[in-house]
Amino acid sequence: MRYAVLGTGIVGQTIAGKLADLGHEVVLGTRDPEATLARTDPDAYGNPPVAQWLAGHPQVRALSFADAAAFGEAVVNTTAGAASLQVLEAAGRDRLAGKILIDIANPLDFSAGMPPSLNPVNTDSLGEQIQRTFPEAKVVKTLNTMNAAVMVEPSRVAGTHHVFVSGDDADAKKLVTGLLAEFGWPAGSVIDLGDISTARGTEMLLPIWLRLWGTLGHADFNFHIAGA
Question: CA–CA distance from 144 to each of 79, 95, 174, 176, 199 (Å)?
C-alpha cells in the first residue's frame, strides 16, 4: 500500500521507517523538501537531520505535503498538533478526500511553557477538528498515547498493554487495526473506543503521560486497561 507520512520529526521518521520495512511504499511529506534536505543540524530533540535519516532509508522519499498526499492511498498525520490543520490544508482537500487519514498528533499547547496544556480539550479534540475540516477524509485517531518507538515495537513494554482507535468509519478502523497488527500489536490489544469524538479521551491522556515520562525517566511504558 502507498502511505504518505506528513511530518519529518521522530514520529514521522519512526512510522515511515516501519512502513517501509514492512514493504509498503512510503513518502515523507514536508513543507519545503529542498529546505528540509539542506538542514545539517540536529533537531530540537537532538535527532539527526532528515537528510541523514533518508540516506539510511533509501526506499523513502521526501515530497511536499501536496505531492505526498497525492501519492498516498492512506495519509498519516505525525505533525505537531498546533500545525496539523494548516499542514493538511497544504496537503489539499481534494487529495485527502476518500482516503484514510491516520491521526497520531496531539494538540499540545506550549504557550504557557512547560509542561504543555491541551488546546482543544474537554469538549473538542484535534481528531474531531480534522474530521470536521476534511469531512470527505476517513479520520482514525490512534497511537497518540505512547512514545514513537513503542508505536511500532510494542514488545518494548513488558506484559499486556493497549492501543486505542477512534473514528466514524468502521471500514477505516478495520484497516488501521490491521496495520497495527503489522506493527506487532497482538489480537486483543486494540480497543475501539467508538466514533471520532472519543479522541477527546485519548488526547487527554497526554498530561498524565508527560508526567509519567518525567517520573520514570524513560518512555518505554504504556497504558494497560485491566478487564479489557
Answer: 11, 24, 18, 14, 10
The distance of Cα 175 from the centroid of its chain, to the nearest Å, equals: 15
Residue the block writes with cell 469538549: 123
**Residues 6 or more apart in contact with residue 79 via CB below 8 angstroms:** 6, 7, 9, 12, 87, 105
- The number of residues in the chain equals 228
Do 196 and 127 meet the contact criterion of CB atoms below 8 Å apart? yes
Write down the pLDDT at residue 11: 97
Give backbone dihedrals phi and psi of 13, rounded to 5 degrees, phi first.
-65, -45
User: b/e per residue, 76-97, with b = 16+ CB within 10 A?
Assistant: bbbbebbebbebbeebeeebbe
Q: What is the pTM of this model?
A: 0.97
Name which of 31, 56, 18 is nearest 182 in CA terms: 18
Average pLDDT for runs of 10 along the chain of length 228: 97 98 98 95 87 96 98 98 98 98 97 94 98 98 98 98 98 98 97 98 98 97 95
HSE at residue 61, side-chain half, CA atoms within 13 A, is: 10
Please report the DSSP string for 133-150 in residue order. HSTTSEEEEESTTS-HHH
